[in-house]
Amino acid sequence: MIDGWGTPGERQPMRLAWIALALLVPARAFADEPPPPEPAPAPAEAPPPVPVHDPDSAADYRPQPMPKDIVIKVNRDRDTNNMLLIGGIAAAGALLGAVGVYYNLDSRDAAAAISPKMPTSQPWTSAQQADYDRAHSSGVKAGVFYGLGGAALLASAVLFIVTAPGEDRTVIHPHYAIAPTQGGAFVARAWSF
Amino acid sequence: MRAWMLIALAACSPDIPSGSYECGPNAACPTGQACDGPTNTCVISSIATAFACDPGVEHDDNTPATGTKIPQLACVSNVFQTAGCLAANDGQDWWQLTAPTGCVAVEAKVIVSYPVAFEPLALALTDTTTGAQVATDTACKNPPPGGEDSRCITQTITPGDDYALAVKPLGMGDDCDGTCNFNRYTLSVQLDTP
Fold first, then answer.
1. Which residues on chain A place their C-beta less than 8 Å from a C-beta of chain B?
2. Is B20 on the interface with A (CB under 8 A)?
3. pLDDT above 90: residue B150
4. CB contacts, 8 Å: B147 with chain A
5. ipTM above 0.90, yes or no
6. Which CATH class for the B55-192 domain?
7. Distance between CA atoms of B88 and B27, rounded to whole angstroms?
8. Which residues from chain B sit within 8 angstroms of residue A108, using beta carbons?
9. How far apart are CA B156 and CA B174, in angstroms?
10. pLDDT recorded at residue B172
11. Nearest to B14 among A104, A114, A122 (CB)
12. SS3 readout for chain B
């Protein structure tokens, strides 16, 4: 619109405007001096109030509590006697189980020795009867030792759970603060425990 | 590995099918089985039957004079084999044997074999001509296989004399405390030159 892109009837008021502007500008504006700064545009609306920082009061920066605490759990160590007790019972259980396996295998061997796949044409003698009795007695012993070994292992597991030494628990309450400052914001985090 | 362990740890109880074993001394059988009288084998107790002598092999043979005659054998003979049976409380079976004549020397080889399940048996050879017992049994050099036992007599006999063979209980007590005081047997007789 400045370059007279209007109609000829409109160019006359435009010239008058230029003249009026020249009268309003001070004469030194035309000297060889740096051009004056352009006038600041009129504020459209009132800016938000700048927070006033009171150095005597830290209320604005006081950390606010976070919704979730930080919990640190530290398991306490088992004492040596407890470990020896549980380990000893478990070892005894394993040993009893091993004895059970021995008798199990002995029973199996004795049973296999007298369990024919076809008629043997041999008489049932005291030797076979001894194997039969051994298979039975070793089987019973195997069952007993398996039971004892299993009970010992179970007892050690229960003891391990029951005698657990517990834990040390520390709760940390984190706080944060965000406060606007001139040209930015102030972020702070704090923990209390 | 786990399967092997399961197999290894399983099967601890004997698995003995019925009829797998012959009866042992004193009619011994695995637990749950019993000695079957007719077959001398261990079978399930519910199907076991009692011992009984075959009527065809029982004779009135309780004295030397009434003993069952053995056919006349040659100086060197084949094996004569016959079956016999001692029923419960039958004290002895007698067999009559006549030594052939015309032989330079004669040796009698007598074997009695019987199941070990029931009462063990013994042999005795008596010269009925003189009335003297000339031989008793000994253990055989070649015992029979399986569930049988045997006793043997090898004795030089006098040609032309009459002999009596006694088959009788051994009397050592292996008769199931009296409940299996019987047995069946096979008697073998052969004459040969000593």
1. 101, 104-105, 107-108, 110-112, 114-116, 118-126, 128-129, 131-132, 135-136, 138-139, 142
2. yes
3. yes
4. 121-123
5. no
6. mainly beta
7. 14
8. 8-12
9. 31
10. 77
11. A114
12. CHHHHHHHHCCCCCCCCCCCCECEHHHECCCCEEEECCCCEEEEHHHCCCCCCCHHHCCCCCCHHHCEECCCCCCCCCCEEEEEEECCCCCCEEEEEECCCCCCCEEEEEEEEEECCCCCEEEEEEECCCCEEEEECEECCCCCCCCEEEEEEEEEECCCCEEEEEEEECCCCCCHHHCCCCEEEEEEEEEECC
Record: contact B147-A121, CB cut-off 8 A: yes
For residues A134-152, average pLDDT? 94
Task: Give the number of C-alpha atoms closer than 13 A to the C-alpha of residue B172, restricted to the C-beta side.
Answer: 10
Give the model confidence (pLDDT) of B64-110 as tens digits: 888 999 999 999 999 999 999 999 888 899 999 999 998 888 999 99
The whole-number pLDDT of residue B194 equals 85
By Cβ distance, the residue of A118, A123, A142 closest to B12 is A142
User: Maximum distance among all alpha carbons in chain A?
Assistant: 146
Q: Which residue has the tokens 């700048």?
A: A50
- Residues from chain A contacting residue B10 (CB–CB below 8 Å): 108
- The H or E element containing residue A71 is strand A70-75
Put simply, the answer to whether A132 touches B14 (Cβ < 8 Å) is: yes
- Token pair 């070994």 is found at A149
pLDDT of residue A27: 45
Sorted by where each begins, the domain ranges of chain B are 13-47, 55-192
Written as six digits, the tokens of B42 are: 């261990």
Q: Is the dihedral of CA B151, B154, B155, B159 positive or negative?
A: positive
Q: Which of A44-48, A189-193, B35-39 has the lowest mean pLDDT?
A: A44-48
Altogether, the residues listed in chain B come to a count of: 194
Q: Which of B4, B6, B7, B12 to mutate to test the interface with A (most CBs of A within 10 A)?
A: B12
Which residue of chain B has the CA closest to A107?
B12
- Report residue B78 as tokens: 């084949």
Q: How many CB atoms lie under 10 A from the CB of residue B176?
A: 17
Residue of B nearest to A116 (CA): B16
